[in-house]
Design goal:
single chain; 255 residues; alpha/beta; Rossmann fold; two-stranded parallel ribbon; 9 helices; globular; binds 2-hydroxyethylsulfonic acid
């Protein structure tokens, strides 16, 4: 069994993906960094290739052909080494009551959070099986465990991620591939800026009056999951800021 780790991370240009790439590099895990923004990918590569081998692949996870052609174009030695998949790419678009929300926003979330995760996983899993070891970490959300107001379809996509993680864990069992779902609550990243389409005020309000999680906190949980002894499989991690108790319950201080 190959004990050296090589990880493919989606959404590696920012937020949780980028922080995960960083902590992996600190622990000697070689990296296949994937994202849409080529310049950003190069920037992360430059920063991390001082410590580990890094290769970049630029594609949109929701574009099936682009996903398969990029992953299948990996050099043979990278394909043979690949044993970790971090499905991180995903976003929320809008926070509106179902009756007011746009179908375009629904499509965008289904495309990145569900179709994207499926495309990348289907392209990578054959290599994990071939390499007889592997671990998939799917970044879910508290929205995968609860449904909250104005979040119907975002919550639906993350519920899908939860179901896919469970299904993968069952079906990949004979292949010795571990599957972990990580479900964060409020994490301060570009997430809210994307959800609110660049409305800085609305984005800031999400994190007002309490200390949110930061991307590094989630990266830490991802690294914990992938660094357990071989016989240990972390199925689920749900993590909140100290000031959060559910998808919607926050203890905010006003000053
Ligand atoms: C992001 C966290 O609480 O906005 O997935 O659903 S939340």
């Amino acid at each position: 069994m190959n004990t050296h780790k090589t990880a493919l991370i989606t959404g590696a240009t920012s937020g949780i993906g980028r922080a995960t790439a960083k902590i992996f590099a600190e622990h000697g895990i070689d990296l296949i960094l994937c994202g849409r923004r080529t310049e950003k990918l190069e920037e992360v590569k430059k920063e991390l290739e001082k410590s580990v081998k890094v290769i970049t692949l630029s594609f949109d996870v929701s574009n099936r052909e682009a996903v398969f052609s990029a992953i299948n174009s990996l050099p043979e030695e990278w394909k043979r080494a690949l044993n970790l998949l971090i499905n991180n790419a995903g976003n929320a678009h809008g926070l509106d009551p179902f009756q007011d929300a746009s179908l375009d926003d629904f499509d965008a979330m289904i495309d990145s959070n569900v179709r994207g995760l499926l495309n990348v996983s289907k392209a990578v899993v054959p290599f994990l099986i071939e390499n007889t070891s592997g671990h998939i970490v799917n970044i879910s959300s508290i929205a995968g465990k609860e449904t909250y107001a104005k979040g119907s379809v975002y919550c639906a996509t993350k519920h899908a991620v939860e179901a896919i993680s469970k299904g993968m864990r069952i079906d990949l069992l004979p292949h010795g591939i571990k599957v972990t779902g990580i479900a964060p609550g409020a994490v301060e990243t570009e997430f809210s800026m994307v959800r609110f389409k660049g409305d800085q005020q609305r984005a800031n309000a999400v994190y007002q009056g309490f200390k949110p999680l930061v991307a590094e906190d989630i990266a830490d949980a991802v690294y914990y999951a992938v660094s357990r002894p071989d016989h240990v499989q972390i199925a689920d991690i749900t993590l909140f800021p100290k000031a959060q108790a559910s998808g919607t319950l926050f203890e905010r201080k006003t000053d």
